[in-house]
Amino acid sequence: MSKSALVISGGGSKGAFAGGVAQYLIENDKQEYDIFMGTSTGSLLISHLASNKINAIKQAFTHVTQASIFSNNPFVIKQKGKIVKTKINHFNVIKNFIRGKKTFGESLNLRQLLSKEISPSLFESIKTTSSEVVVCVSNLTLNKIEFKSISDCSYDDFIDWIWISCNYLPFMSLVVKNRYEYADGGFGCIIAIEEAIKRGATHVDAIVLTTEEQQLNRMRSRNAFDLLLSTFDFMGDQIYLDNLKVGELLAKKHNVKLRLFYTPRVLTTNSLVFNQQEMEQWWSEGWEHTRNMLKNNRQ
Q: What does the radius of gyration of the chain's CA atoms come to, in whole angstroms?
């Protein structure tokens, strides 16, 4: 029996681009998916995509702000023209440590937003379909990646797993659930092609929120905060490459049709900055890029 999967990688605010890609694939390319898999920002999209509520998730995703995400924001963001400079908010970080927290910031507002955007009725409607909606999280206590399917979860648990999948440490919340510490799924699996194939996918469309070839040489770090972000970005790039290599090998071995959709350019150097105007542009850019890509492939 053939199964089709849509897999969306992590990438913070760049998830807006993935939304545009997915919209074109579902509405214009008429793709019907049996499996929806998301890591981090990808997990924010897949519930609405599975229920074909694309306009609703587009409205919600492209209007996210820093305040929508952070209950305690560890960043100070200053923008001059097109140049965005990010510094650490020392007051908020110290406040978090005084409260006994282990992270620089807290993302409780994102948990509240998820409860608002993914209603119990939407959750139940997805569970009654044959679609498999799966979220990737990192279990830090057991040192392993876990995949949480909507079919195995209560409503509150599933909202928790999506929230956990997005919590990019040490800037967002560290969550203790079932006595284990959990964090962003991207710390171990940024693009879950391998898992989609293991679940029986014979066709995989994977949206990879980075460029196919490296197009960026990073500037020297200006401070400890810059260095931390650069280090995490470097590690994330290596995880991307490993995930893609394994995914492509498995696809070839099992004769799985694999289509990869990359960003055509570097969208941002800090995906934890949520700019409404930019994200609306990226959504449109994702739609346009996918249309042109598939059109050229058919010629």
A: 18
Distance CA 104, CA 95 (A): 9
The residue written with tokens 């498995």 in the block is: 250
Structure tokens at 218: 């990073």
Query: What global pTM score does this model have?
Result: 0.93
Q: By three-state DSSP, how is residue 8 classified?
A: strand
Q: Model confidence over 43-69: pLDDT tens digits?
A: 999 999 999 999 999 999 999 988 999
Pick the closest to residue 21 from 298, 240, 294, 250 (CA basis): 294
Q: What is the mean pLDDT of residues 260-279?
A: 90
- The rounded distance, in Å, linking the Cα atoms of 192 and 146 is 11
Cα 214 to Cα 210, 263, 266, distances in angstroms: 9, 11, 9
H/E element, 174: none
How far is residue 158's CA from residue 47's CA, in Å, rounded to a whole number?
10
